[in-house]
Each structure stands twice: as C-alpha cells, then as structure tokens.
Amino acid sequence: MKLAVNIAGVTFKNPVTTASGTFGSGAEFEEFVDLAALGAVTTKGVASQPWEGNPTPRIAETYGGMLNAVGLQNPGIELFCRRDIPHLKEKGASIIVNVCGHSEKEYLEVVERLSGEPVDLLEINVSCPNVKEGGIAFGQKPEALFHITKAVKEIARQPVVMKLSPNVTDITEMARAAEAGGADALSLINTITGMKIDIHRRQFVLANRTGGLSGPAIRPVAVRMIYQVHKACPLPIIGMGGVMTGEDAIELIMAGASMVAVGTANFHDPCATMKVLQGIETYMKNYHISDINELIGCI
Amino acid sequence: MMTMIKGTAMVLSQKMIADGIYDLVLSFPEAARLAVPGQFVDLYCRSAARLLPRPISICEADAREGSLRLVYRTAGAGTREFSHLKAGDSLEAVGPLGNGFISPEDAPARNTEKVLLIGGGIGIPPLLELARRLPGEKIAVLGYKDALFLKDDFDRLAGRADPALGSLRVAVATEDGHYGCQGTVLDLIREQKLEGEIIYACGPMPMLKAVSAYALDRGIKARISLEERMACGIGACLGCITKVKHKDHHTNVHNRRVCKDGPVFDAGEVDFS
Ligand SMILES: Cc1cc2nc3c(=O)[nH]c(=O)nc-3n(C[C@H](O)[C@H](O)[C@H](O)COP(=O)(O)OP(=O)(O)OC[C@H]3O[C@@H](n4cnc5c(N)ncnc54)[C@H](O)[C@@H]3O)c2cc1C
Ligand SMILES: Cc1cc2nc3c(=O)[nH]c(=O)nc-3n(C[C@H](O)[C@H](O)[C@H](O)COP(=O)(O)O)c2cc1C
Ligand code: FES
C-alpha cells in the first residue's frame, strides 16, 4: 500500500499532518503520538517577534465545533528556531512551519530566518490582521494575497504553501491570486469567523468577541472549497477543516487534497492523528486501493 | 516516562452529595498512581457535539485501589451528562494533568509548618488530597455559599491523628450564616485569627484575588489554583493562559498555560490587573 504523497516536490511518507495551532510545536503531544509516524508536523504560527495574543476567554465550545481567539500568541522566530526545530528534527519529524505577521516586512523576516533551517515547507497564514491595511487580513483581498505571495516567494528557500481563509466570497479567486503570485501549493481552510453570546450574562463569550470556528461543524465547507479550488487551479492542496476520522480525510482527499491536516480533533482525542492515519489505511484495504494518489481529486 | 494517561475509566460509584454536587469515583489505575494533589483530569463527553474535554480536579487519588475521586458541580450539558453515570459505566479520560499544589522548591517537609488550606465552593475538593498528604499544622478554611459538602471528609481526616502527618483543624464559613462563621473565608480567618506560614487556595477568582492580596500583605507565600477555558488540556493550544508579571521561559511572553504550567501558581507571579 503506497501512502506517500508529494507536495511541491517534497515527499511525505503519508498524507496526514497536523493543523497549525492545534498541535503546539509537536512536543506537547509526544506522550500520545510518535511524531516521526506523521506525514509531517505543522507547527503553530510563528512571527518575527513574540506575540502576547488575546485576553481570555480565548476558547468557546460550540455544537460540533469550537471558537478560538488565541490571537496567534507565539514565542517568536528566534526561540522557535533554537528550541522547537531542533527538537522536531531529533524526533525524526518532517516539518511544515506556519508563518504569521502584521506586515509584509514581518512575514519576510520570518521567511528569511527560516532559510537555513531544516524545514520542508513554509505555510503562510494570511489570516493575520494586516496593520497597514487597517486590520483587514492579507487573505481577504486578491491583490494583497498576490503581493504577499510574490514577496515571500522571492526570498523563500523552501516551497511556499499559501493558507487560504474561507472568509471570502469566492475562494477560487483567492487561489488564483496565490497561484499568480507564485505559490507552490495551497492549504485550506482556515477557521470561519464566528461569535457566541452568553445569553444569561448578556455578554460575549470570547474576550475578543469574534473567534475562528473549527471542528466537524465546518467540514462540509472545507470539502466544498477544496473541491472548487482543485477544479480551478492546478496547485497541490493541503486540506483541513473538521477531520475527525480516516473517512473524513478520504472525503477531503477525494475533493482534491493531496495531504490532510488534523486540527480540532486533537483536542477531542490526543491520538486523533494516528487514528486518522489508520482509518485511511483501513479504507484503502477495504476498497483495494494500492496508492493513495489514485484518490486525490477523484470526484 | 509517562506523566499522563489516556484511557477508559470505569465508574465505581457516583452519588449526589449536595444539591447539584456529585461525588464520582473512577477506576483509572495508572492515573491514580501518578496523581499528586492539585492536578486534574480531563473527562470527555459521549456526545461528539461536545468535543472539548471537561477539566475536573482530583479530590482523592488512591494508588492502591487505582481509583480517583472527583467532586463536581453540574454547570452545563457536559457535567449534566456525567451526572447520569452509574457504577459499571465507562468514559474516556486523560490525566493526571497540570502541576499540583506542592512546588518542588517549597519542600514541605517540616510538619511544624503552619498551613492554611483555603477552599471556596467547588474549589474545596482538591484540598482534601492535599490535606491528607501535606505534613504540618494545617487548618482547612472552607467557605460555602449554602449547603455544606465534603466537610465530613475533612472532619474524619482531622480526627485521625497521625503524628507523622501533623495535625488538621477545620473551620467553616457560610455566606448565609447557617453554619459556622457568616461571611467569606477571609472574614473567618480574621474573626478567628487563623494564621499560617503558607497558604494553598482554590476557589472562585474574587476569593483567590482577596487571598493573594492578604498573603502578599503579610509577606507569606500563597499557592493558588486557577481556572480557565481549555481546549487541549496539555499545553498545546494556548487557549488557557493566565497573565504573569514576568516573561515565561516557555511562551516567551507574559503568559503561562493554566493547564500545563498550572493550574497552581504562586500568587505573587500572577498578574491580576
Ligand atoms: C483546572 C480545572 C479544574 C476544575 N475542577 C473542577 C472540579 O473539581 N469540580 C467542578 O465542579 N468543576 C471544576 N472545574 C470547572 C469545570 O471544568 C466546568 O464546570 C465544566 O467544564 C463545565 O462543563 P459543562 O459542559 O457542564 O458546562 P458548559 O458551560 O456547557 O461548558 C461549555 C464549555 O465551557 C467549558 N467550561 C465551562 N465552565 C468552565 C469553568 N468553570 N472552567 C473551565 N472551563 C469551563 C467546558 O469545559 C466546555 O468546554 C475545573 C476547571 C478547571 C479549569
Ligand atoms: C486553537 C487553534 C489555533 C489555531 N492557530 C492557527 C495558527 O496559528 N495558524 C493557522 O494558520 N491556523 C491556525 N488555526 C486553524 C487550523 O490550523 C485549521 O485551519 C482550522 O482549525 C480547521 O481545521 P480543524 O477543523 O481540523 O481544526 C488554529 C485553529 C485552532 C482551533
Ligand atoms: S488548554 Fe490548550 S494550552 Fe491549555
């Protein structure tokens, strides 16, 4: 059974990775998961400087999902390179680093700093507020996405994956903008903006008022968007959004994903990534699929 | 080395011990062996509509029996689901999680040390195991809104004079005044002139703030157990942070994770503003 997949020239031993921000730097899950058994570990968004993130509460559960407004708290690229990358390497993990920033300059500082590091892919999170554009995310305007992609591509030493936000009218327009900017691959979907109100206290549940919705509740949106993007644009896709089981992962793969990230499911079961991988293998056995690549975008 | 266990815990017993307060005993042997006072377990709901684990403090851990006792209040749908569990049922759990009350540098070896164990409401349960294991001249200062629970357990422990473990006295305050001193735990401490060289506290935020101010004022050390909304429970998602006065070495910012670096913190390090 062949499980290896290829994203932008990089081969991963299987199609299961972690969704950025749900798996820390990997180390936090080590007692539950053999990091080397994953296709790759995708790390929490990292910026040029440490970020304090949002006030609490940052988390709210919703039906079949959750809202988060962590606000991209991160220790900054220096400590990340000194502590987290060597640790992942020592554990034998393939590494996808998720990058965030408030301005083009900040993104580029991180990408530059990573140029000599043993990182397999860069995943650029364009859902961060763009300070210059009055806080509108880079990922919500095709021109802004095109420019940031192009700028990153010019200096990046590793293949560049642009992570698309679902909070747009036409996801294919964004995919094409990233493609035009030179992206090597796309990942989708990031969280969907939501809100929860505590009706007993008449106040917002999250200190930030709004948060990103994730978990099984958003999976149909992820499947639809992956499908649309796969039809509209030839770039390989890392798919995510509500994957809980191997069957869910197969659904995203059939829609067009070459690799699948497990996110919120890690909170429901710290062994979720391993179970998703086993579930994929079981599906392939049952349907006599010898190579996972046969299933990518088969619908 | 394993520090936490993921597994299926079996319900040994459950009963309601006060209005809306449940006393749940689980068989979860590996976790029971590892547990120290102040740690918690994450319990998972059966319904996948409720994805996130519910953190519940360990009230008692019996390594020999392989059991954990949890005392919780029904707060919403998740804890209501747990309240229907009966002996023989099982549920998914991860634990023990967090750091526990006793920090290594405190070295609570002297059983002459005067200790105040201050608990408010549903913050009382984790103090029971602490009272059992901690040496010293201990006073359990328990504050209730109305109905008492677990007081008998503290009384029993107090009555069992094991000199190796020092002594235990129990003092009670109730908001409605139907038992003990009327008022808060701090009213009780002041009224009865209760004194300690170190404080361990768990309870609602206003109580913890007041206890911290009291301790700081007197220059005594206080270890307080905090609560925050959690997702992963194991330090990965950064959902559950508390603000701290100094930059934390792990997060590299002025935040520490309640689930992993806590839930117990030195009162002096927490930034309440
Ligand atoms: C470290 C720690 C130890 C705890 N120990 C105990 C204990 O020993 N006994 C006890 O009765 N309660 C304890 N709690 C509070 C307990 O976790 C919540 O009451 C419980 O999660 C509520 O779940 P629910 O589904 O009934 O309520 P809902 O309000 O429906 O829960 C919705 C979501 O909010 C979260 N949530 C709600 N209230 C709290 C809260 N107070 N703290 C953290 N998350 C919350 C839930 O986990 C869930 O994700 C503890 C909390 C923490 C953080
Ligand atoms: C707590 C939390 C933190 C996240 N942090 C990041 C992040 O730092 N960068 C990023 O690109 N996406 C982040 N995400 C989005 C996830 O990577 C993923 O795109 C999204 O949650 C959908 O997948 P899921 O439903 O499987 O969780 C975060 C999601 C959650 C729940
Ligand atoms: S709950 Fe995820 S870091 Fe504490």
Largest sheet report of chain A: 8 strands, parallel
Low-pLDDT runs of chain B: none
Give me the strand/helix succession of chain A. EEEEEEHEHEHEHEEEEEHEHEHH
Report on the biggest sheet of chain B.
7 strands, antiparallel
Q: Any descriptors?
A:
A: 299 residues, alpha/beta, eight-stranded parallel beta sheet, 21% strand, globular, B: 273 residues, Elongation Factor Tu (Ef-tu), domain 3, Rossmann fold, Dihydroorotate dehydrogenase B (pyrk subunit), domain 3, seven-stranded antiparallel beta sheet, 6 helices, binds flavin-adenine dinucleotide, binds flavin mononucleotide, binds FE2/S2 (inorganic) cluster
In short:
Chain A is α/β, with parallel strands linked by helices and 299 residues long. Helix content of chain A is 30%, strand content 21%.
Question: What do you see in this structure?
Answer:
The complex is a heterodimer of chains A (299) and B (273). With 299 residues, chain A is α/β, with parallel strands linked by helices. Chain A has one domain: TIM Barrel (Alpha-Beta Barrel). Chain A has helices at 77-90, 104-113, 142-155, 171-180, 219-232, 246-255, 265-268, 272-286, and strands at 5-7, 10-12, 16-18, 41-46, 59-62, 65-68, 95-99, 121-125, 160-163, 185-188, 192-195, 197-198, 203-204, 210-214, 237-240, 259-262. In chain A, α2 runs parallel beside α3 (142-155), α3 (142-155) packs parallel to α4 and α5 (219-232) packs parallel to α6. In chain A, 58% of the residues are buried. By secondary structure, chain B is an alpha/beta fold. Chain B folds into three domains: 5-97, Elongation Factor Tu (Ef-tu), domain 3, CATH 2.40.30; 107-225, Rossmann fold (3-Layer(aba) Sandwich); 226-273, Dihydroorotate dehydrogenase, electron transfer subunit (Dihydroorotate dehydrogenase B (pyrk subunit), domain 3). Chain B has helices spanning 29-34, 77-83, 125-133, 151-159, 185-191, 205-218, and strands at residues 5-18, 21-27, 40-43, 54-57, 60-62, 67-73, 90-97, 114-120, 137-144, 167-174, 181-182, 198-202, 221-225, 241-243, 255-257, 264-266. Chain B has a seven-stranded antiparallel β-sheet. A seven-stranded mixed β-sheet of chain B has the order 11-10-9-8-12-13-16, sandwiched between helices. Chain B has a two-stranded antiparallel ribbon with strand order 14-15. In chain B, β8, α3 and β9 (137-144) form a beta-alpha-beta unit. The relative contact order of chain B is 0.14. Classes of the chains: A alpha/beta (299), B alpha/beta (273). The complex binds flavin-adenine dinucleotide, flavin mononucleotide (FMN) and FE2/S2 (inorganic) cluster. Flavin mononucleotide (FMN) sits between chains A (19-22, 44-45, 68, 70, 72, 98, 125, 163, 190-191, 214-215, 218, 240-243, 263-265) and B (231, 237, 239).
